[in-house]
Amino acid sequence: MLDVRFSSALTTLVFLGVAAEEGTAVVSSSQLAEGLNTNPSLVRKLLAPLVRDGLVDSVKGRTGGAKLARSPQDIPLAEVYVSVIGDKPLWTCRPEGRRACQVSAHTAGFFARLTERAEQAVLTMLGDQTLADAMHELRCTDHHTRPTVPATGRTHTGGTQAQA
Fold first, then answer.
1. 103 pLDDT above the threshold of 50
2. Angle at 10 between CA 153 and CA 93, to 5 degrees
3. What integer is the mean pLDDT of 50-74?
4. Angle 131-141/5-21 helices, nearest 10 degrees?
5. Cβ contacts of residue 83 below 8 Å, gap of 6+?
6. In the predicted model, is pLDDT for residue 75 greater than 60?
7. Helix, strand or coil, per DSSP, at residue 69
C-alpha cells in the first residue's frame, strides 16, 4: 500500500503557511481535514509528529488548532519527511527464501544498499527545498488560483482568491 503521510503532511503545512500569510492565527483540524478530504481525527494523528518535532504548534481550547512553529523558509522538506515517515524504509526487499544460487544469496544485501542510496538521494533533494519553495511552486503552477485555507462550504483551490 502506498504511504501518503508525507504528501498529507506537506499539504497540511502549505495550508498552515497560507493561513499565516493571510492573517489566520490558527487552523482547526476540521478545516485541515476538509482540505485533505479526510476526517479531523486523522489530521490530529498526522499533526502529532509535526508538533513533536517542532514544525507545528498546537493551540488548545475551543478556538484552538494548529499553526506553523517556524517560518516556511525555515522548514526544510527533508525535516517534514523524516518527521512523518521516521525510519520506515523507502522500499522493502522481498523476503529471503532459500539461497540456492548467486542471485538469491545476494539480492537482499544489494537491495538494502540500493534502498539506502535512494533514500539518501531523496533526503538530499528534499533538504534543498523548503516549505516556502513548495508554496511558491504551487502558486506558480496555476496563475488563476491560489491555495487557501479550507473553510466549511468552500473548496481549497481558492478560485476566487486574488492571484499570488
1. yes
2. 125
3. 95
4. 80
5. 9, 49, 50, 52, 53, 55
6. yes
7. coil
Grid coordinates in use for 68? 506553523
Q: Nine-digit cell at 127? A: 533538504
Tell how far CA 85 is from the center of its chain. 9
* Percent of the chain's residues with pLDDT above 90: 60
Q: What is the phi/psi pair of residue 33, to 5°?
A: -60, -40
Residue bearing cell 498529507: 8
pLDDT, position 144: 57
Q: Which three cell numbers stand for residue 23?
A: 492573517
CA 143, CA 84: separation in Å to the nearest integer? Answer: 30
Q: Is the pLDDT of residue 36 over 60?
A: yes
Instruction: List the alpha helices (DSSP H) in 86-101.
Output: none
Residue 119, classed as helix, strand or coil, is helix
State how far the alpha carbon of 125 is from the alpha carbons of 66, 79, 128, 131, 141, in Å.
27, 12, 5, 13, 20
Pick from 63, 61, 83: which is nearest to 12 by CA? 83
pTM of this structure: 0.79
Amino acid at site 135? M
Dist CA 23 CA 8 (whole Å): 23
Closest CA to 17 of 149, 159, 152: 149
